[in-house]
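Postdoc handover notes: sequence design on the structure in folder B. Input tokens:
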């Protein structure tokens, strides 16, 4: 019974004894008695809900970890915030995170730490990745309370060698209520050096619009951040991956705060009824633009119309990772193709953008 209850609480932490007994098909009194006799393994909160008392260990796969592989590694845990257990993230030998999953991971562990979860990142078997994370500026933005094994680097190679890598723009903080001109120009300059002047307006628009929205709308204790990485994989198209991440309210709650006032038709079409409606609203906003929490007459806010127009001129993938789902908009030959929707992802706060521009 112990193993079965642990599996149930891994999938759905915070169940009552009645709910656990129902899933087990056992008598409620028997289950409650068993739980009380094994409080070294299970714990109960003030609302009489049960949790596993052991450390959660999440191991990433070996090889290059894409955003999809990263989410699959977390998939067993729908909500890591629900209880205050210890969580260890383990990197096996030859495990390397692409920029998009690295940015999601950084945001997630900082959020967990802020919410009182004790986090350890185990890089014992993956020293090369530890070195790359340091070079990318990961540890500069990582909470000081998060434990690193074998140990946190004593100095930041991102700060020492900042701006010296042709294929990398290190993770940079997005300062609230600031234009963040230096960060935007660093991203833009690196992008143009690896492409050509045809991308000039597209790159500047993407960086300035998304970073500007994080600066203005985030409302989070945690700083947003952005970075850029250039990939030239063998036998595949080269691409430039840019991430812009914030841990704030998220684009859906931000828009919904005034949707009924400025866009009553959209409010009626996409009511606040759950994930499916949220996905519909995100598709509307990012594929068509012209929607802002300040209203269309304001000429500001979360419209994303300029970004959409620029992306449509090139082959690009725009992914928007929100609380428990991700929408990817692929542009090919000047047009938006079928969106890719991922649902039931591990809970994470904020809005996490990745733009992949494919270059010849």
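Designed sequence:
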């Amino acid at each position: 019974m112990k193993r079965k209850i642990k599996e149930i609480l891994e999938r759905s932490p915070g169940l009552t004894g009645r709910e656990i007994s129902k899933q087990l098909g056992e008598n409620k009194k028997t289950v409650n008695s068993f739980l009380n006799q094994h409080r070294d393994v299970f714990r109960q909160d003030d609302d009489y809900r049960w949790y596993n008392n052991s450390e959660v260990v999440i191991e990433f796969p070996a090889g290059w970890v894409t955003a999809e592989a990263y989410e699959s590694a977390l998939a067993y845990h729908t909500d890591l915030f629900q209880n205050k257990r210890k969580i260890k993230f383990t990197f096996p030998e030859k495990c390397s995170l692409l920029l998009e999953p690295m940015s999601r991971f950084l945001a997630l562990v900082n959020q967990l730490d802020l919410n009182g979860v004790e986090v350890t990142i185990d890089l014992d078997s993956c020293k090369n990745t530890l070195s790359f994370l340091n070079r990318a500026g990961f540890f500069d933005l990582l909470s000081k309370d998060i434990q690193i094994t074998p140990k946190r680097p004593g100095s930041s190679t991102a700060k020492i060698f900042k701006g010296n890598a042709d294929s990398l723009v290190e993770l940079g903080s997005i300062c609230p209520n600031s234009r963040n001109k230096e960060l935007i120009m660093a991203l833009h300059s690196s992008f143009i050096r690896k492409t050509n002047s045809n991308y000039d307006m597209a790159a500047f628009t993407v960086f300035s619009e998304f970073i500007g929205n994080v600066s203005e709308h985030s409302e989070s204790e945690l700083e947003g951040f952005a970075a850029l990485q250039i990939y030239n994989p063998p036998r595949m198209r080269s691409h430039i991956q840019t991430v812009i991440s914030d841990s704030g309210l998220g684009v859906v709650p931000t828009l919904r705060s005034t949707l009924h006032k400025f866009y009553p038709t959209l409010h009626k079409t996409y009511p606040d009824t759950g994930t499916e409606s949220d996905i519909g609203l995100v598709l509307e906003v990012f594929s068509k633009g012209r929607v802002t929490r300040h209203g269309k007459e304001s000429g500001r806010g979360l419209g994303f119309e300029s970004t959409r127009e620029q992306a449509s001129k090139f082959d690009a993938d725009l992914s928007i990772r929100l609380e428990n789902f991700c929408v990817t908009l692929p542009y090919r030959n000047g047009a938006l193709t079928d969106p890719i929707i991922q649902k039931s992802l591990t809970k994470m706060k904020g809005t996490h953008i990745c733009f992949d521009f494919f270059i010849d």
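Context for whoever picks this up: The radius of gyration is 22 Å. Don't rerun without checking with the PI first.
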